Amino acid sequence: MKYSLYNQENKEIGTILLPKEVFEVKVNPDLVHQVVVSQMANKRRVIAHTKGRGEVRGGGRKPWRQKGTGRARHGSIRSPIWRGGGVTFGPTKNRVFKKKINKKMRRKALFMVLSAKVNEKLITVLDNLKLEKAKTNEISKILKKILPPKTSALMILPQKDEKILRAGKNIPKFRIIEARNLSALDLLSFKYLILAKEAVKKIQETFLKN
Predict the structure, then answer these.
(1) To the nearest whole number, what is the mean pLDDT of the chain?
(2) How far lies 163's CA from each of 129, 130, 139, 177, in Å?
(3) N or C: which terminal CB in the chain sees fewer CB atoms within 10 Å?
(4) Once rounded to an integer, what is the mean pLDDT over residues 20-43?
């Protein structure tokens, strides 16, 4: 499919052919939802952790003898019913949130989101992106010409560019990513997509392998 090609000044300078296998895929919302949920789960880190009776400090000996004291029998002062004891059913770091998803499903969902972005005209393809200095002000000027104000955007580069990465890392609601690391979750986290011309070829090489 033909799509408009722009320069850094946001002026149309021609067209580019986008591969229909990537940018003309029928959207299946259920598949996209399933893939995005799995990717969110796989990124989740287990933070909350409570110690059980076997992890808290102390309680090495029996507090008093089993019989003859008139008190209830106890084996450890670190029992959950004691003050300072372990927690019975608290959250632990042993929880696993990961969800397996097939590679073909991940790839298909990625193509579906790209296709939806194209249909809604939320993708801007740039002929070339060059910065004189690795300054936030430099890339901000370019983004102001391309994007509406107060919107989120994801920029996709064909390969790592330290100058562009340093310039764009402090801009709110904006992220720069390499084409080979692209995912459906990344695309759906931002409204607009700025795509370098060479990144289209990189997406083909990465995700359309036999």
Answers:
(1) 91
(2) 11, 9, 10, 13
(3) C
(4) 94
Contact 59, 78 (CB under 8 A): yes
Which domains does the chain carry? 2-44+100-207 (3.40.1370.10), 47-96 (no CATH)
Rounded distance, CA 136 to CA 208, Å? 34
- Smallest CA-to-CA distance from 80 within 67, 92, 69, 89 is with 89
* 0.85 exceeded by pTM: no
At 151-160, the pLDDT tens digits run 999 999 998 8
Q: Residue 204: which of 124, 114, 87, 97 has the closest Cα?
A: 114
Count the alpha carbons within 13 Å of 127 in the hemisphere toward its beta carbon.
Answer: 12
